[in-house]
């Protein structure tokens, strides 16, 4: 199996290409998570090679405050026993928005493919996505957005479509300068009218 | 990128049919018969290891080596196990290209025999098509390697559409259908197992072929992905390519490690590539013909505003509905000057709007007035003329008028005519004159939408 890149190694890669991701930290105890929170609501997630559908499997706990943090940490830690090795990650809550997916995979025939679609829990329900062969041009990025049925939803009626096409081009650049990446999932990326945050990063290398 | 010269295969001055036979049940007999029927005017030879003298009046040799002539194309129709030996003889004799019609290679697991065939083709740098294919047809040079008799499969007229097909079954049925179309055929290339000459080589050839205005292709897989991308980038900037890719349902694997891999399987990757490089994607066999028809008219729209002229109210509404749901076409709004003129010149029962319903008694004069006004309206980019020949006013004069306007306007114009014999007669009349005719609102609108998408791609590139 292709190895999963460490979450923070992935995050550094995104940082380098100007792709914004939500503030995060590994936590090793409930107290650790409480400290990260410092009074703000947070997210706790369990990360394991064995878990792809984190939210479906109950491995993502959202909007936690105070004692909820301790309870959620314990729940995740007990689920983690069956998914060893695992890590628990604490994240800031993203500001509300629409969830999209940005992804890539390596095709045996054509090489790197780049994808954008309606994300989060809707990925497999609506299968609304656009795909291209890398490297892509700016016009391709715009075409990809225009191809989506959910275009007006994810672009807030066109208000952030420039931001989104720039984001696609940033991911394209990341893929072109890191040839070892076999697969990439930024799912979800929470998109707003004036910004976005990648809240989950999954990178597999050769 | 390797470049195979396929010109001697499609435009041969001399052809040898190897495996030609006196026995009418043999493939080699039908092929020779077809060459004779097609009226091939080059030098034709038959090869049969047991025969001498002639077959059907064609001089016959025991081996290709005995022919004292330079052979451009050898058509090989002998049992699979003899193919390497025959191909080797062709190579030694300096044959320039070969088509191996015979089956019994990789398609039944006999990859070793196929590899042997390829290494001989490579050794002699002799472009070899097949095996397991129908071969090639070019109505201009009158070559026809198909082993299907003409009474079973009608041959298309000469035209600008080239058809590339991996499957023999799809190839023969679509070819039969093309023979009923007005646009006509430039080249037919059925490449079967794609052992030596593959889709990249064929597209490379067709890109530079002046006689080919539009390429339509049916493919099951692409052998050289990276090279295909290179040719894809270039060919659609010169001419439209319509592609039908089989294997849609084999989606991404369910056990994928990422959402992206689960969504984007092999078919999706092909589709992405086609979209990216301006191919026109067909979803069904009928699309291949529908899109070829409009694209071969070589008239491109400047925008998406579409005007409907009709002699049937309901059909006009159906077309307007199809435009509404096309996602790319828009209903045109007539200019003020044109509206005023039409109001003055049309009977009161004609509502001046889009669709412009000329009413059931519309004759060629009324169509003429409408078309003269609308073709000169800058607010209109494309025109769909509905001509229902069941109505009292519509007859051959209407068809002739429509053809006449097609030649006078630089806006894409298509006709929708639905019906049986009388309508079909007029369809053929109009299509022979290069005016695309469709038989359903959705086929008409989807075809215009694809024309616009291609025009947009060309403008962008």
TL;DR of this structure?
The complex is a heterodimer of chains A (206) and B (461). Chain A is built from seven helices and ten strands. Helices cover 33% and strands 31% of the residues of chain A.
SSE topology sketch:
The complex is a heterodimer of chains A (206) and B (461).
Chain A: H1 7-16, E1 24-27, H2 30-37, E2 42-48, E3 60-64, H3 67-80, E4 86-92, E5 98-107, E6 111-118, H4 123-126, E7 129-133, H5 138-147, H6 151-154, H7 161-177, E8 181-191, E9 196-198, E10 202-205
Antiparallel strand pairs in A: 1-4, 2-3, 2-4, 5-6, 5-8, 6-7, 8-9, 8-10
Helix pairs in contact in A: 2-3, 5-7
Chain B: H1 7-10, E1 14-18, H2 27-38, E2 43-47, E3 54-55, E4 58-61, E5 73-76, H3 83-92, E6 97-100, H4 111-123, E7 128-129, E8 135-138, E9 143-144, E10 158-165, H5 168-178, E11 185-190, H6 199-208, E12 214-219, H7 225-238, E13 241-245, H8 259-263, H9 266-276, E14 280-281, H10 285-295, E15 305-310, H11 313-324, E16 330-331, H12 336-345, E17 356-357, H13 364-375, E18 382-386, H14 396-408, E19 413-416, H15 421-432, E20 437-438, H16 441-460
Parallel strand pairs in B: 1-2, 1-5, 2-4, 5-6, 6-7, 10-11, 10-12, 12-13, 13-14, 15-16, 15-17, 15-18, 18-19, 19-20
Antiparallel strand pairs in B: 3-4, 8-9, 8-11
